[in-house]
Amino acid sequence: FYCHENEAGTAGIMEGFNKYFPKIKTSYVRAQTGALYNKILSERSAGRFDVDVIQLSDLAPAVDFQKKGGYEFYVSPESQAYKADHLSTPNGSFFWTGVDPAGIAYNTDKIAAADAPKGWQDIVNPRWKGSISCKIVASGLQFVQWYTLRKIYGAGFWKEFAKLNPHAFDSRVQLFDRLAKGDDMITAIGEYPAYILFKGKGAKVAFVAPPDGLVATPLVVGAVNKAPHPEASKLFVDWAMSKRGQAWYQSNPNLYYGSVRTDAPPMPTGVRLADLKLLYPADWDDYAANREVFAKEWNGMLGL
Question: For the purposes of burial, counting CB atoms within 10 Å of the CB of 43, is it exposed (0-12), middle (13-18) or buried (19 or more)?
Answer without folding.
Answer: middle
